[in-house]
Design goal:
There is one protein chain. It contains three helices and 29 strands. Strands 12, 13, 14, 15, 18, 21, 23, 24, 25 and 29 form a ten-stranded antiparallel beta sheet that branches. It is mainly beta and about 375 residues long. The chain has one domain: Beta-galactosidase, Chain A, domain 5.
């Protein structure tokens, strides 16, 4: 049911708000907003401040959705793959579900039993919140664009974390094919925060028909990755990618790299090169410079996705067990996640860049996904 419309016809940025459904737990209505700019449409829902879909043309002019999504609210309620979600209070894994901070030991719920770790903010992390939502309009020198802002809070000791914190997830879509994200964490007392988005990309737009991302081409400006132990926790050591199956510095198919891996699983944190090319662009109201982290391309459709970010690295996940996680809805390797974030387990590793947040010093994280078409 449509609730509101804004913008004008044609390619000018606009929006429409509609209801996806109601939570079966009685937690309220899940609202969705579709942003349109030029030939692009992106939709989001307030449950988990999630990306719902992104529509773009292929080389033949056929429009397709390049994100994995569920058809209804129930799918997102039962989801354990974090589909399209804003992840936090701290993304990725925290070793043994605990860390020391300001002289106190904080115990977090362990929701990754196999590794004994705290994962993606816990079972009731930000991906389960029903966020508030408002439309963003811009009248500056940047490209034509429109946005949406989601906001929520966590109480002191929510999911075990110290301090009450407020969060904003801001998305903007421009007519030049850039989808920008800005995460803002503020607090009244010192805490930690590291947010990311867990979108599952399949540029073929045929994941529902069984298409995988093995034939996609991937290039990353990353000369190092983080070594991990048997529980997927970083050891603290940076390893050169040169001479390994994790060297994505030249364009190659994902399948080529998977075939060279012992376990055929890509779930690694890559450190973006300091001298990576810069993108000068706009994120919400700010003119910014972001490093070029990665480029993903689907040769069959010509669709290309470039990732630019101010974060130190990307967690790259090839959805190795997607079939089991999704109860067979999608095949293993049916999508690729490119999660811009701080170093995993930074709360327990003093050598890693800090993710601490203090009063009067918000943590702001910015990433841009840029979409285009490549000639055959």
């Amino acid at each position: 049911m449509q609730a509101n419309k804004g913008g004008s016809s044609g390619s000018s940025p606009g929006f429409r708000i509609f209801e996806l459904g109601r939570l079966t737990t009685g937690g309220g209505c899940v609202s969705a907003v579709e942003l349109s700019a030029g030939k692009f449409k992106a939709a989001f829902i307030n449950y988990g401040a999630r990306l719902l879909y992104l529509h773009m043309d292929d080389r033949r002019g056929i429009v397709g959705n390049i994100l994995l999504r569920y058809d209804n609210v129930y799918g997102y309620e039962k989801d354990n793959a974090y589909l399209g979600a804003t992840i936090g209070r701290v993304a990725n894994r925290i070793s043994a579900g605990q860390f020391d901070f300001d002289g106190e030991t904080y115990i977090l719920p362990v929701n990754e039993p196999k590794g004994g770790n705290h994962l993606h903010g816990g079972p009731k992390g930000l991906h389960t919140h029903l966020w508030r939502m408002r439309i963003l309009r811009f009248h500056d020198d940047g490209p034509e664009r429109i946005g949406v802002e989601f906001s929520t809070e966590e109480a002191d000791c929510a999911q075990g974390y110290p301090g009450r914190a407020s969060f904003k997830a801001r998305y903007t879509l421009s007519t030049c094919g850039e989808l920008a994200t800005e995460y803002i964490t503020t607090c009244g007392q010192r805490t930690v925060s590291d947010l990311t988005n867990h979108a599952y990309w399949n540029l073929s737009s045929r994941a529902k028909e069984g298409a995988t991302v093995k034939g996609h081409l991937l290039k990353m400006n990353a000369s190092n990755y983080l070594e991990t132990d048997g529980q997927m926790i970083p050891t603290g050591e940076l390893i050169r990618v040169e001479g390994t199956s994790l060297d994505f510095r030249q364009v190659a198919s994902i399948e080529q790299h998977l075939d060279a891996m012992v376990d055929g699983e890509l779930d690694h944190y890559f450190v973006i090169d300091e001298d990576a090319p810069l993108l000068h662009t706009w994120v919400c109201e700010q003119s910014v410079k972001l490093r070029h982290a990665a480029t993903l391309e689907h040769p069959g459709t010509g669709r290309e996705l470039e990732v630019f970010t101010d974060q130190p690295g990307l967690q790259v996940y090839s959805a190795n067990r997607l079939s089991r996680i999704s109860q067979g809805r999608w095949r293993d390797y049916g999508a690729l996640c490119l999660e811009a974030q701080g170093y995993p387990n930074a709360v327990n590793e003093p050598r890693f860049p800090s993710i601490e947040v203090g009063p009067g010093a918000p943590r702001v994280q910015r990433t841009v996904w840029r979409f285009s078409l490549q000639d055959q």
